[in-house]
Amino acid sequence: MAKRSSVDVLLEVDKADAGVLTSGLTPYITSIGELEVNKGVVDSTPFGASAAAYLLGVLTKYEPIPIGFFYDDAAEPAPNAVFDITKYAHAVTRSFSLTVGGTRVYTGELWIHDWKVNFEVGSYHNCTATVQFTGTIGVA
């Protein structure tokens, strides 16, 4: 499996509700968590069976993903201008596009539900936003 560097990943997210996808976030991003998708299973064990049986679930579930980045309130666009839920309204989902390796593109809608800023003295100021995908994710 090939390793990917930051030049192989492009993340775009609406800056505001119902806005336009914001490019230029990638140079500030230090990490993107794992894309974890599962369908789960449903217990289908009949009465009197001696071992559990399951059916594959029908709903796809996406786990929340943390995104780490440098804090820079002077840059435009900067991730904190997109993900800082204390400054910007977030009444509806935001569109996103995540390109990996220059070829695989994931698109869909997400909620920003967590925002953390670390102002440790003697270190760069880093932030983490946790996003939750909702609905169907398109893959091209």
Could you describe the 3D structure shown?
By secondary structure, the chain is mostly beta strands. The chain is built from one helix and eleven strands. The chain has a seven-stranded antiparallel sheet. A hairpin with a 3-residue loop joins β9 and β10. The longest helix is centred in the middle third of the chain and has 5 residues. The radius of gyration is 18 Å and the shape is elongated. The protein starts with 8 loop residues before the first strand and ends with a strand. The mean pLDDT is 82.
Give the helices and strands, then pairings:
Layout: E1 9-14, E2 21-22, E3 29-32, E4 37-38, E5 41-43, E6 54-56, E7 61-62, E8 65-70, H1 79-83, E9 94-100, E10 104-118, E11 126-139
Contiguous uncertain segments of 5+ residues: none
- Give the amount of beta strand, in percent: over 45%
Our count of helices gives: 1
Number of E strands: 11
Tell me the structural class.
Answer: mainly beta
Helix share, percent: under 10%
Taking all residues together, what is the mean pLDDT?
82
For the biggest β-sheet, the strand order reads 2-1-9-10-11-8-3
Query: Which geometry do the CA atoms define?
Result: elongated
User: How do the SSEs run, as a string of H and E?
Assistant: EEEEEEEEHEEE
Biggest sheet: strands, sense, closure?
Answer: 7 strands, antiparallel
Q: What's the end-to-end separation, in Å?
A: 19 Å
Rg, please? Answer: 18 Å
